[in-house]
Amino acid sequence: MTEITAPLPARPLVLGSTSRYRRELLGRLGLAFDVQAPQVDETPRPGEAPAALARRLALAKARDVAARRPEAIVIGSDQVADLDGQPLGKPGTHERAARQLRRMSGRVVVFHTALAVACRASGFEQQDLAPVEVRFRDLSDGEIERYLRAEQPYDCAGSAKSEGLGIALLEAIVSDDPTALIGLPLIRTARLLRAAGLVLP
Questions:
Q1: C-alpha to C-alpha distance for 52 and 114, rounded to whole angstroms
Q2: Catalytic: 41?
Q3: Three-state SS string across the chain, please?
Q4: Cα–Cα distance measured from residue 127 to residue 26, given in angstroms and rounded to the nearest whole number
Q5: Under 8 Å between Cβ of 132 and 174
Q6: What radius of gyration, in Å, describes the C-alpha atoms of the chain?
Q7: Lower Cβ count inside 10 Å, N or C end of the chain?
Q8: Phi then psi for 122, rounded to 5 degrees?
Q9: Could you tell me if 138 and 106 are in contact, meaning their C-beta atoms sit under 8 angstroms apart?
Q10: What does the pLDDT look like over 51-75, one tens digit per residue?
Q11: How far is CA 135 from CA 83, 110, 138, in A?
């Protein structure tokens, strides 16, 4: 008589980020998950390229949370805006956001959204990177001021929320993973979660 064994329970899923944008995006996959803040120094290293910075921080965030939740599958992510090879971070203030937008006016900026999935218990660790090319319109100082007063995008790399009023600042977006610009590339996320052993549609 063949013995029937019950399937192993799914590992818990943890989003290693306190970003409300990433939390809302991950919710689209219909998976139950917890949120835990990573403790990671996000200071760029001297001469570090924007894509390399995004990759390093995404992996560091996933590893940091996975060390505290070794049984869980942990998602880490980070986004760095790249203007001519120089990283543009979260502005934090109105003045820095205005300076960023003036620099990006009429230019192409690449937003590198890095993703890492790690599980200590299974030894799983994979990374991916979703670059998004964004072409900004020529922006007047008045347009920049009106936008910043309306949106206050001081917690967004590059100061432009494409999911909100920031879309009006743009001429074009080129990406193979449409949610990457908002903060979490869901096509790549789903692929890595399946590789880590989670069942998705």
A1: 9
A2: no
A3: CCCCCCCCCCCCEEECCCCHHHHHHHHCCCCCCEECCCCCCCCCCCCCCHHHHHHHHHHHHHHHHHHHCCCCEEEEEEEEEEECCEEECCCCCHHHHHHHHHHHCCCEEEEEEEEEEEECCCCEEEEEEEEEEEEECCCCHHHHHHHHHHHCCCCCHHHCCCCCHHHHHEEEEECCCCCHHHCCCHHHHHHHHHHHCCCCC
A4: 17
A5: yes
A6: 18
A7: N
A8: -95, -10
A9: yes
A10: 999 999 999 999 999 999 999 999 9
A11: 11, 9, 10
143: Cα separation from own chain's centroid: 27
Tell the burial category of 65 from Cβ atoms under 10 Å away from its Cβ (0-12, 13-18, 19+): buried
Q: What are phi and psi of 148, to 5 degrees?
A: -65, -40
Rounded alpha-carbon distances, angstroms, from residue 128 to 68, 77, 180: 23, 10, 11
Tell me which of 34, 41, 64, 78 is the catalytic residue: 78
Find out whether 135 and 156 touch, Cβ atoms under 8 Å.
Answer: no
Spatial contact of 55 and 87, defined as CB atoms under 8 Å apart: no
7, 8, 89 from 185: Cα distances, Å: 30, 28, 18
Token couple for 173: 């977006």
> Is 80 exceeded by the pLDDT of residue 8?
no
